[in-house]
């Protein structure tokens, strides 16, 4: 399973953005990940949004399913697209 480093900040920024757009709390996302077989604690999820924990490919696909977005959307810089 490949890890994707989130050093550029776009991944974490979009993760938070998508969660807020769906009016979800971090623990809600963690619960939905659990239903998909991805065991991640809320503390670890917080680290994802903070950029101190690296994403796996499977995690990005699971999150895309939860937020109903394309996995590539996590890498888009929505601030520069007007």
Describe the structure in your own words.
- The chain has 82 residues and is mainly α.
- It has one domain: 434 Repressor (Amino-terminal Domain) (Orthogonal Bundle), CATH 1.10.260.40.
- 51% of the residues lie in helices and 5% in strands.
- It has four helices and two strands; from the N terminus they run E-H-H-H-E-H.
- The model has no long low-confidence stretch (mean pLDDT 87).
Task: Classify the helix fraction into a percent range.
Answer: 40-55%
Q: What is the C-alpha radius of gyration, as a whole number of Å?
A: 12 Å
User: What's the main sheet like?
Assistant: 2 strands, antiparallel
Tell me the name of the CATH class: Mainly Alpha
* CATH level-4 homologous superfamily: lambda repressor-like DNA-binding domains
Shape: globular
What is the total number of structural domains?
1
Counted beta strands? 2
Distance between the termini: 35 Å
Here the CATH topology equals 434 Repressor (Amino-terminal Domain)
Structural class: mainly alpha
Report the oligomer: single chain
Which stretches are low in confidence, meaning pLDDT under 50 for 5 or more residues running?
none
Mean of all residue-level pLDDT scores:
87
Order of helices and strands: EHHHEH
Q: For the largest beta sheet, what order do the strands appear in spatially?
A: 1-2
Number of helices: 4
Residues in β-strands, percent = under 5%
Quickly give the CATH architecture.
Orthogonal Bundle
